[in-house]
Specification:
alpha/beta, 9 helices, globular, binds NADP nicotinamide-adenine-dinucleotide phosphate
């Protein structure tokens, strides 16, 4: 029987994309510290498999599962509602779920999938859970970005990549958007006891890139990631650190790599762009723009 470390006992943590890769290892790490962990997955069978694996490996039974397709705004709203019906506190929200799509696909809301899942889903879910996070303070929001944000640029007139969809551009844009969102969020949350940080997990051998490409593309991506990437356990370390370490209590508005704060791309510090992106994201998910 695994022995529980109790450093996160009494803390309620939500991890999106907890059915695979970095998210599953992050959820396991937090369960091993005694937290109550709410896994978010889109597929019932994969969700139950992850839940059962995490319970067994951690020896912690407080591992819950909520289902949501984060490419659908209605599903995200239902997820927040289901969470709030069951829980009155949320101490850690880890926006981890993400996609890397080599071809352009639209969501049920008519939005480009990479931008919808990687940026708009964290934006909407976080905003829907902000009141409970504030009421649970000290609380932490951890957004999984990528060093791919450094090559990213925001095209406010083509956020949906309708004019041009080229290889890494939508992914880089979405991960830069996550950094811009985190910095704006941290500023808006000043004085609330809720922190917001983002991170690059490393180049990690996971299932990333397995949607939206043909079988040859999928095999090539899989080959590259599984041969060159670090393990998902290693890749989860910075997320777990930001979610749980006393070293980062009160630290906010930073970008971390290997659990160390690093400067992100120069453009990510542009406060006008941060605000513009916030307002456009709010418009796209139908939240009040100035809230
Ligand atoms: N791997 C890397 O080298 C790397 C590098 C930098 C950043 N990242 C970031 O790390 C995060 C985790 O990715 P990973 O590498 O662990 O990839 P992964 O193994 O593919 O895991 C992605 C997770 O997101 C979930 N997900 C995807 N689309 C979803 C949707 N529409 N609704 C709900 N859940 C959805 C997946 O669910 P299913 O199991 O149902 O597919 C899965 O649980 C992502 O944000 C990624 O961009 C990864």
């Amino acid at each position: 029987m695994p022995t529980l470390n109790t450093s996160m006992q009494g803390k309620i943590c939500m991890v999106t994309g907890a059915t695979s890769g970095i998210g599953k290892e992050t959820a396991l790490g937090l369960a091993q510290m005694g937290a109550t962990v709410v896994l978010v997955g889109r597929d019932h069978a994969r969700g139950e498999a992850a839940q059962s694996e995490i319970k067994t490996k951690s020896g912690n039974n407080a591992v819950d599962l909520l289902l949501a397709d984060l490419s659908s705004q209605e599903s995200i709203r239902q997820l927040a509602e289901s969470f709030l019906q069951k829980y009155t506190q949320l101490h850690v929200l880890i926006n981890n779920a993400g996609v890397f799509m080599l071809t352009r696909r639209e969501t049920v809301d008519g939005l480009e999938t990479t931008f919808a899942v990687n940026q708009l889903a964290p934006f909407l879910l976080t905003n829907l859970l902000l009141d409970v996070l504030k009421a649970s303070a000290p609380a932490r929001i951890v957004n999984v970005s990528s060093d791919a944000h450094e090559a990213g640029y925001i095209k406010m007139d083509d956020l949906q990549a309708e004019k041009q969809y080229r290889f890494m551009r939508p992914y880089g844009q979405s991960k830069l958007a996550v950094v811009l969102f985190t910095y704006e969020l941290a500023r808006r949350l000043e004085g609330t006891g809720v922190t917001a940080n983002c991170l690059h997990p490393g180049f990690v051998a996971t299932n990333i890139g397995q949607s939206g490409v043909g079988s040859v593309g999928r095999a090539v991506v899989k080959f590259i990631f599984s041969n060159l990437g670090i393990s998902a356990e290693e890749g989860a370390k910075t997320s777990i650190y930001l979610a749980s370490s006393p070293d980062v209590e009160g630290v906010t508005g930073k970008y971390f790599v290997k659990s160390i704060p690093k400067r992100s791309a120069a453009i990510s510090y542009d406060e006008t762009l941060q605000r513009q992106l916030w307002e456009e994201s709010a418009r796209l998910v139908k939240l009040p723009v100035k809230a």
